[in-house]
Amino acid sequence: MKNVKLERSRAPTTGQVLRLSVAFLSLSLASGCVVGPDYRKPTLAMPISWSKKTKQEAPPELSQWWKKLNDPLLDQLVDEAVAGNLDVASAKAKVRQARATTREQAGSLLPSATASSSATRNRSAATEGSEASVYPQYQAGFDASWELDLFGGNKRGLEAARYSEQASEEELRDTLVTLIGDITSYYVQAREYQALIALAERSAKSQRQTAALTRRQFEAGEATGVDAAKADAQAASTEADVPSYRISYAQTIHRIGILTGKSPDAVEARMSKNAPIPTPPTKVSPGIPADILLNRPDVRQAERQLAQYTAKIGQAEADRYPSISLTGSISSSATSIGDLAKKSTIGWSIGPTVSIPLFQGGQLKAAVDVAKAQRDQYFVAYQSSVLSAMEDVENAIVGLNQSRLKNAKLAVSVAGYRQAAKLSRSLNETGATNFLNVLDSERSLYSAEESFIQGRVDIATYYIALNKALGGGWDAALDIDKPVVRDKGEAPHLVSMR
């Protein structure tokens, strides 16, 4: 590195100051130059429509999509989760960190200045003809420096910091998309387990009544011991489903409590009353594939990260070019404070410092190659995020459409098995059919009703998955600036040693 510094020891004339000002202005204008590639958003080839075409191709209605399930308690839980979820709080802190980093990087483009002062008491040595003397010495000084960003290294750093800030904001939005989808999914599951518990208890009660009747018929010699044993076994098997469903229900409720940022049992009381499984609207528009580039926050985050690492190439490239810093200082020394800058010794210096990277063993070029390789990785990650988003939407569309068809058939199946169970009991009472047909019809009805409940949940689950895949999340205002931890006593203070 070659360093050159120019200094003057006497006050500059007006002409010298003017020439220096013109030189500094010229250098400042020249500092508008940057090196490295300028970022341009990639153009990706997108299909004009989804492969499973739908009747609705209007833009997707993603704003507060969960409210279309018409469940006030679900709406409350979503609001509570957005306000209290710990993952959201962490994502907010990351945004604050990124914003502070941007402000810190912006400061590198501005001059820096420091002031200093000192006070000493000195003693001069005695010499022939004079005695030793003691006198005070006061000094005050001012130093300033400014790195002229001739090749835009600091500008590229600020550019990268701003892109990073935008990426952190998209990460927060993606966290909200995931959170709202999770809260809604767990809520639907909780209502599913309530419905399955009610079904199992209702079916077990009916089967117990059938088993009691069979036992009386066996005692009267109208049924076999096999019939009675099978009736008891079927009722017990259905009753055994209840504890399993209660376990799953409790785990789901506890998860909802955690997602709201509270204790596991925080929502148990409000969820204790049974409510129907939320039913999605019949018409849902997925829009077109290009919509995900604008609506999916994880896709936007990947694109902003690509922009960030493109800017870092220019930051690394600028290190290969010369740099110039302007420095200046002025100091005053006197034996009395009142004499500073008046009856005192005044010294000053001003001038540029030039640093030229002559030989670094290939490190600076290697740093540029590293930055380009990182940029390439984020370009691939951006492409991957787009493809994954398209896959999510395609899967959700297929799942939602097929689940609706499946559940329509299951409804017919339930109606048929209910009629069959009713007829089999009537025929058994008249002796027209054996008891095995009664047990078989009851078992089939229970299984069909169970499948029908799960089918309704599948429809709601794929509706949730579709809205998540399309990027539906929270679009209301968020308080990001409020810190989680409020520090006290940050001013200078004494600390006791323990």
Key phrases:
single chain; 498 residues; alpha+beta; five-stranded antiparallel β-sheet; 10 helices; 11% strand; disordered N terminus
Any overview of this molecule?
It is elongated, with a radius of gyration of 38 Å. The relative contact order is 0.16. The chain has 10 helices and 5 strands, in the order βαααββαααααββαα. Mean pLDDT is 87; it is low at 1-12. Strand 2 (112-124) and strand 3 form a beta hairpin. The protein has 498 residues and is an alpha+beta fold. The chain has a 5-stranded antiparallel sheet. The longest helix has 68 residues, at 363-430. It has helices at 14-30, 72-84, 86-106, 153-219, 225-259, 268-271, 291-295, 297-318, 363-430, 435-470; strands spanning 2-5, 112-124, 133-148, 323-334, 345-356.
- Count the DSSP helices: 10
Name the quaternary structure. single chain
Mean pLDDT: 87
Strand content: 5-15%
In terms of per-residue confidence, which ranges show pLDDT below 50 for 5 or more consecutive residues? 1-12
Helix content: 55-70%
Give the class from helix and strand content and strand pairing.
Answer: alpha+beta
- What's the shape? elongated
Radius of gyration: 38 Å
Please give a quick description of this structure.
This protein has 498 residues and is an alpha+beta fold.
Strands, helices and their partners?
Layout: E1 2-5, H1 14-30, H2 72-84, H3 86-106, E2 112-124, E3 133-148, H4 153-219, H5 225-259, H6 268-271, H7 291-295, H8 297-318, E4 323-334, E5 345-356, H9 363-430, H10 435-470
Antiparallel strand pairs: 1-5, 2-3, 3-4, 4-5
Helix pairs in contact: 2-4, 3-4, 4-5, 4-8, 4-10, 5-10, 8-9, 9-10
